[in-house]
Each structure stands twice: as structure tokens, then as C-alpha cells.
Design a protein that fits this description.
Distance between the termini: 34 Å
Largest sheet: 6 strands, parallel
Structural class: alpha/beta
Radius of gyration: 22 Å
Shape: globular
Number of strands: 15
Strand content: 15-25%
Oligomer: single chain
Helix content: 40-55%
Number of domains: 2
């Protein structure tokens, strides 16, 4: 099978993670633009060169497309771009023609522009540093109480007209582009089209836009960065059933940070989009363990505490994966300690605690779908991914990141965690490097040097422990 994949930007989770997941099955041919062509924090994707690249690849069975990359140059540029609707539409039509010629099926997603609730303009237009929270309050009150309400008018009065109008014009343009995509879906161009609500709250202009698109027949869901991965899982047309098990069963109706639906709905939505069948425990191929929160989701870096996992972890008696969502942006140290306590068992498949509940679940399901029924399992690639998730989601995000305030050499800080992760997994990389792709501490790239060792050259059946 051949898959074309155009990421949303050049972050490791958007570029290297999909490629590394697909590498676990050597029977799949994977085509993705060179990372230097993609957009980032301070640059737009080179759309002309991506178009040329697309023309050169062979015909693929599936194309998984992040439409923000094609339309605006990436996720961050989608919030900053000042291009007109007509200019973007003409540009998109060009890509539409070549995609028709290159792909059997097209799975795509487009974001509904988020509304950050702080005065940080790192990922927004410059005026967000002074008016970010005020715009968020206007958006919230506009959605909850209506434009003519005193709450909305009070919030509006705190924002200069020129700034609010610029912001609303950008939102309107992006919303009209999303409606254009919906027209293409109705024409039959997209086989699957998802509109994502990125970093959303219960009320807001983005939430209202999502509802308007839904009324027009769109498929709208909470999340963003993980959706290309969930769509990638969908391309793996193999029957795999799953049973979600929530460790805090009585709290699964609570809403996660940066989302507007319950943990249970967020997880189930990702499971369904990834193409899994949901079955009872006794009938399921895979058990999805969800380490959810009791009263509210914590966030270690923001110093938002929550009740950690408290108890012994008893592994299921069949293959299982773990979505650790008790905290946003990092693992639950108490749960990882309980997981590591008894060592790796033969049914352990994968672990994730990346960012939001949707991020964690979608990326985890993609790995599980590819690996579970892989035609030619590349055990080295698979083990590499397991190590990276522990080093990134647990070691760095939940521990080391708290100790630094700017990019710096963290190898010595990471080594104790590497030793613990290696002991659990049953192997150690020859060397490891940690870099900051966006020159900030929010995300790192973990680069492992995987030496060929005897344990990787052996013949495995799936589920066997790597520990002799």
C-alpha cells in the first residue's frame, strides 16, 4: 500500500511521528514532503515546492492531507495569514487538480481557528500580546450570551475596532474556506473530511463555527494535531476491535483541558475515526486503558495539581495500550511508577501522554492500528517509538521541563529517566540527542541512535516480550 501524507507543520509529532509509526510496517510505502518545505513557528510552508513534490510522487492508495498547510502554509500561519479568500481559493483549486490525479482516496482535515485565552502572541498575530484575553472574553460572551448582550458589549468596548475587525475578518475568511471544503466533500472529492476544533472551550466563536459547519453536514471534532494521525490509522483497513477501560470510571463524563466534550466522548470519537470497532472486554482485540482524572485534569508545567493515580496497576490479560490523560502536557508520574513496578509484560503494546486527551488518544491508536496487524513488523522501529514516547511524554514533559526555562542541554537531566525506561523496555539506545525544533521548551525532538543488536535481529511474534 502507498500513502501520501502532508503534515500540518514541521514539529516532530507532526512529521517524524507519523513516519516512524508507518515504519513499523515495512510493507507500506510512505511519501511525505521534505521537512524543510513545511511551515513552522516563524515560517510558512513552501506551497510551490510541495506542489512540485506532489507531482513527482507515484500514484498512491491514500492521501492524508492537512489542508491548513496547502491553504495558509501551516497551522500557525492559518491564524496570521492576511491573504484574501479569492487568492487562497485559486491556489487550492490548483492542488485539487493534482490530488485528483495522484490519489485513490483522499482523507483531509482543516482546523477551525482557535481562540487562545492568554496574552501570549507566540502563535498568534502581534496584537495578541495586548488583547488576547480580551478577545477571548468577547468570543466567550458573544457565544454564551449573544452579540447584543451587556456582557458581550462590555468585552467589545475593551478592544480597539481596528484590531477586533482584523481578527473577525480573518475568522470569516477561514470559515468561508472551510465551507468551500465542505462543498468539495459534497461533490465527492474528499472521501473523508474532518473539521477540528483546536484548543476550544464550551463557548466561543470557534465553537459556534463548528456548530454551523455541523448543521451544514460537516464532520466536526475536538482536537487538531493528532487528527492526521487518526486519519492515517483509518487508512489501515484491517479489522481491529477495542474496549476502552477508564481507571476513574465515575469521572469519565468530566471535560478535559482545552476541549469541550467529556473524556469519554473525546476518546470514543478518536477510536471511531481511527476505524476501530468497539467491543466488550471479553471480545476486544485490544484494551485501551485510560488513566483519566477524578475532579479535574492537572497540568504539571502550569502547576495545576490533581489527584494522581493511587494503586497498583494490574495489566489486562490481552494486548493493551495506555492513554495517560490524568494531566495535560505530560505523564502521571504515579501511574508510570506503577506501570514500571512489575516490569514489561507480554501484552503491553504502547503508551502515550502527549499533550491533550485527543492528542494522546489519536496518536496512540495510530501506532496500535499499524503494529497490531502489520504485514512485516519492523521491531526496531516499533521499539524506538516506545522509547521516544516515554522519554518525551514522561521524562521530559512531566519532569525535566519543569526544571528549565529556556532551551539548553538536558542530557544529564534525562539520563536517570532513560535508565528507568530502558529497564522497563528491556533495552537501551546506543545514544540519544534532544533538540528544540521551535527554539522553545514546549516541545523537543528525541533522536535515538539504534545500533543493530542481537535482540533486534531475532524473529518475533507479536506480543512477545523483548526481555529474555
Amino acid at each position: 500500500m502507498r500513502i501520501c501524507f502532508i503534515p500540518i507543520d514541521n514539529r516532530p509529532v507532526c512529521t517524524y511521528l507519523p513516519k516512524d509509526i508507518i515504519s513499523c510496517d515495512e510493507s507500506i510505502e510512505f511519501y511525505s514532503p521534505p521537512v524543510e518545505l513545511l511551515g513552522g513557528l516563524d515560517k510558512n510552508a513552501d506551497a510551490a515546492k510541495i506542489y512540485d513534490w506532489l507531482q513527482q510522487i507515484p500514484f498512491v492508495d491514500y492521501a492524508v492531507i492537512s489542508l491548513d498547510t496547502i491553504a495558509y502554509g501551516g497551522l500557525i500561519p492559518s491564524r496570521r495569514s492576511r491573504r484574501s479568500y479569492d487568492d487562497i481559493r485559486i491556489h487550492l483549486e490548483k492542488f485539487k487538480t493534482v490530488l485528483k490525479q495522484k490519489a485513490g482516496k483522499i482523507f483531509a482535515f482543516s482546523s477551525i481557528m482557535r481562540i487562545s485565552n492568554n496574552d501570549i502572541n507566540t502563535e498568534e498575530k502581534e496584537y495578541w500580546a495586548d488583547y488576547g484575553q480580551k478577545i477571548f472574553e468577547y468570543s466567550f460572551n458573544h457565544s454564551k450570551y449573544g452579540e447584543d448582550s451587556k456582557e458581550c458589549q462590555k468585552a467589545k468596548s475593551r478592544i480597539p475596532d481596528i484590531i477586533l475587525n482584523d481578527y473577525l475578518d480573518g475568522r470569516k475568511r477561514n470559515f468561508e474556506i472551510n465551507k468551500l471544503y465542505l462543498d468539495w466533500k459534497k461533490e465527492g472529492f474528499f472521501d473523508l473530511l474532518i473539521f477540528s476544533k483546536d484548543d476550544c472551550a464550551q463557548f466561543g466563536l470557534n465553537t459556534d463555527e463548528g456548530y454551523e459547519l455541523y448543521k451544514l453536514g460537516a464532520d466536526v471534532m475536538t482536537g487538531a494535531d493528532e487528527i492526521p494521525l487518526t486519519l492515517l490509522a483509518r487508512t489501515i483497513e484491517k479489522d481491529v476491535s477495542i474496549c476502552p477501560v477508564f481507571l476513574e470510571e465515575n469521572s469519565k463524563s468530566l471535560i478535559s483541558n482545552y476541549e469541550d466534550i467529556s473524556v469519554e466522548k473525546s476518546v470514543i470519537r478518536q477510536v471511531e475515526l481511527a476505524g476501530f470497532k468497539i467491543k466488550p472486554y471479553k471480545d476486544a482485540d485490544i484494551i485501551l486503558i485510560v488513566n483519566n482524572f477524578k475532579e479535574h485534569q492537572g497540568e504539571i508545567v502550569m502547576k495545576i495539581e490533581t489527584d494522581p493515580f493511587n494503586g497498583n496497576f494490574i495489566p489486562p490479560d490481552k494486548p493493551y495500550i495506555i492513554a495517560d490523560v490524568r494531566y495535560t502536557n505530560g505523564a502521571d508520574n504515579s501511574f508510570v511508577k506503577a506501570l514500571f513496578k512489575n516490569g514489561r509484560d507480554k501484552n503491553f503494546l504502547a503508551y502515550s501522554a502527549w499533550n491533550t486527551t485527543a492528542n494522546t488518544t489519536g496518536s496512540l491508536l495510530c501506532l496500535a492500528k499499524v503494529v497490531y496487524h502489520s504485514a512485516i513488523l519492523n521491531r526496531t522501529a516499533y521499539e524506538k517509538l516506545l522509547m521516544i514516547r516515554f522519554l518525551d511524554d514522561w521524562a521530559y514533559q512531566a519532569n525535566v521541563r519543569r526544571l528549565i526555562d529556556k532551551p539548553q542541554n538536558i542530557e544529564n537531566l534525562m539520563m536517570p529517566f532513560l535508565q528507568k525506561a530502558g529497564k522497563f523496555l528491556g533495552w537501551y539506545p546506543a545514544s540519544v540527542q534532544f533538540t528544540y525544533p521551535w527554539a522553545r521548551v514546549f516541545e523537543i525532538n528525541v533522536n535515538l541512535n539504534m545500533e543493530e543488536k542481537d535482540e533486534f535481529s531475532r524473529s518475533y511474534t507479536f506480543g512477545d516480550s523483548i526481555i529474555d
